[in-house]
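Human: If only I could read backbone structure tokens as easily as an amino acid sequence. Underneath my words sits a plain record pairing an amino acid chain with its backbone structure tokens. Take your time, and here it is.
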Amino acid sequence: MRAWRVCVAADDEDLATAALWDAGTAGIEVRGGPEGRVDLLAYFADDDPPLTLALLPPGAAVEPAAVPEVDWVEHFRAGFRAFRVGRFVVAPPWDPPEDPSPDLLVVDPGRAFGTGTHETTRLCLGALEHLASRRPLGRTLDLGSGTALLAIAAGRLGAGPVFASDIDPEANASSRHHARINGVRLGVVRADGGRGLRAGSFDLVLANLMALLLVDRSAEIRSLLAPDAALVLSGLLVDDLPFVREAFAACGTPAERLDGEWGALVYEGAR
């Protein structure tokens, strides 16, 4: 990794940024420069400056710069603070709320696999809260669980027993870790989607996955549902909703939940 300091007139910042992206930069930091000018710190994979830097606006000054040593995990952790999603409070271990509630979800963002901040996770948490207000959640599966944040939230809302399934052993370890720090009982299963899980076993299935995977595995996911089960499908861009809905047409008509460009489908009494 190599960094280049590009100093341009403030009015030329957008032109310079576009030229740097065209040159293949991996990222740009905007820093204050001399009066009327701005410094752009651009990162590139190669040591030599790309020839396309010649396309920078007139008067641009370019010089090599040291690549700062940053512990990006610690940098992220330092900025991660407790936040609320509906009735839930999502908090890292180092920033617990002053008055913790039964709906506290402790998440360790240093372990990846989701922190609760993404729209798709928030949609699932909202769907869980809504379902729990209407029916017992019962035997629950978090499919492609990652941190198992959704499984833990379901348990907080009275679901049980609750299982977290993922094919990635690191995700399984993350699920067990989060079960421990949240003080909940959680069955952690390493499995490829619904394969290896007993058909018709779950009153609620949560699947926060990519649309193409949901469509490809739709029959497999549907087979896991007990009679009159609930199903939450998330991880979907709004444009994905129609063809995912079509793949799960046998489950009935879903309710849609939207958050910006993301959406989720919620089925009650799925067949």
Observations:
- The CA atoms of residues 209 and 235 lie 5 Å apart.
